[in-house]
Amino acid sequence: MSVSTFKRGLRVPTRKAATEGKPVELVPPPKQVVIPINQHFGAPNQSLVQAGDRVKRGQKIADAVSPGPMTVPVHASIAGVVKKIEPRTQSNNSEGICIIIEAEGEGPAALVEDGGPDTEFLPPLDPFTCTREEALSRIRDAGIVGMGGAGFPCHIKLAPSKPVDVIIADGAECEPYLTTDEAALTEKPHLVVKGLAIVMKITGVNRAIIGMEDNKAHLIPMIEREVRLGGYSGDIQVGLCKTLYPQGGEKMLIAALTGREVPSGGLPMDAGCIVQNVGTLSAIAEAFTLGKPLIDRDLTVSGGACKTPKNIRAPIGTLLSDLPPEFIAIDRSALRKILFGGPMMGNAVSSIEIPIQKNTSGIILMTEAETWTEAEGPCIRCGRCLRNCPMRLSPVIMNYSLEADDFDTALTAGLMDCIECGSCTYMCPARIKLVQRFRVGKQRFRARQVLEAERRKAAEAASAAKAASASAAKG
Ligand code: SF4
Ligand code: SF4
């Protein structure tokens, strides 16, 4: 099988050995979960429960303030009693409203997979006989968002406004340390293939590629067997890419597997593609076959300060600090940095008392030796950030412009096309925190756009009111 790739890209140490090939272990039922009511990219939710309410596992507990397409509900991940609803720090370091559910007793029924007395799943639905609208509603009602990134609502992605002819299952998992996508391909290839077939049915696309880096080539026979057993030979292929960072980025995977380029400012559908993470595909399959909402997720817990590195399955809202030390043991004296996500694109957080969310692919507990401690130096204009940016942007110019509050130049240099892969930061000899600046810069730019839109709206309303009062005065 040929191995494809994209232009540029880095060889970074993969640091996956500690969890690679390890089975996914179900966490001991947690005594509580802290569930953020907003875990998606889109319009905000409100709580549907109050303190004191008893909830079942799978019960909807938060949904949109007002109906709209960019909304995704949230469900209770364990059965128990709502203790509090209050702001807590989330993995993006911002405060957000969370519903805290305490398991009753020891919570023995907390992790019942389906049909137990303490569960409230959706009724199973046949994705191949229901209508497209019913299928999209099921994906929304099950609270499914992209589990490999920013939490984009899945039902929106599957209803593209442009023609699409290829679906790509993203199993590249190029971030160091993380091994849960590999575990999904190893332990539940039938669900990944089924999820892919459901997506193909919904979108009417008859070609799909399961994309993986060549360090997972040993999984090909097993995946091809599932494809054959499902009767999808000819429609679903496996595509092998070079083990290169950031191969798992949507735009990189599309370039490697189809040779197409997503235009600047565009989305995968602008290249005729939809990309879905393999974990998300497996959640889609379960939303139909079991009626199971997105209430658990697989993630990697690793890093030098983790004495028990492993892949785990945890209810959404689980705190690492609530897991018993015999399950996850942390060397607190060696712990220097906690990351939600991988070291290239993840967020550094200040505590392990932060809930696992729908998009938490890993928690990495790092020692001094695994982190950079050098202070930032001045830019020496070496150009390494430019040469290594997979999006062919100008990180050094973006950085200077943001420092000068010059958004126009930062935008021209490509700020909004930055995929926040961290390659520039990794390569910068001056240790300038480039990607962190770009993340903040993008947030500031979006906030500025919202403010400008509000100002425009207010000015239009004022001028309409003035015109109405002038016409009333004439009349
Ligand atoms: S890599 Fe760092 S030091 Fe080199 S040009 Fe880019 S920002 Fe400057
Ligand atoms: S500018 Fe953005 S896309 Fe380019 S290397 Fe840096 S983080 Fe990655």
Kindly summarize this structure in a few lines:
This protein is 28% helix and 19% strand.
Could you characterize the architecture of this molecule?
This protein has a six-stranded mixed beta sheet. Strands 1-12-11-10-13 form a five-stranded parallel beta sheet, with helices on both faces. A four-stranded antiparallel beta sheet has the order 3-9-8-5, with no helix packed on it. The chain is built from twelve helices and 18 strands. The chain has three domains: about 5-290, Rossmann fold (3-Layer(aba) Sandwich), CATH 3.40.50; about 295-370, Ubiquitin-like (UB roll) (Roll), CATH 3.10.20; about 385-445, no CATH class. It has helices at about 130-140, 155, 180-185, 190-205, 220-230, 250-260, 280-290, 385-390, 395-405, 405-410, 425, 435-475, and strands at about 5, 25, 30-35, 45, 55, 60-65, 75, 80-90, 95-105, 165-170, 210-215, 235-240, 275, 295-300, 310-315, 335-340, 345-350, 360-365. The mean pLDDT is about 95. The radius of gyration is 23 Å and the shape is globular. The protein has about 475 residues and is an alpha/beta fold. The longest helix is centred in the C-terminal third of the chain and has 41 residues, at about 435-475. Helix 4 (about 190-205) packs across helix 7 and helix 9 (about 395-405) crosses helix 12 (about 435-475). The protein starts with a strand and ends with a helix. Bound molecules: iron/sulfur cluster (2 copies). One iron/sulfur cluster binds near residues 391, 395 and 419.
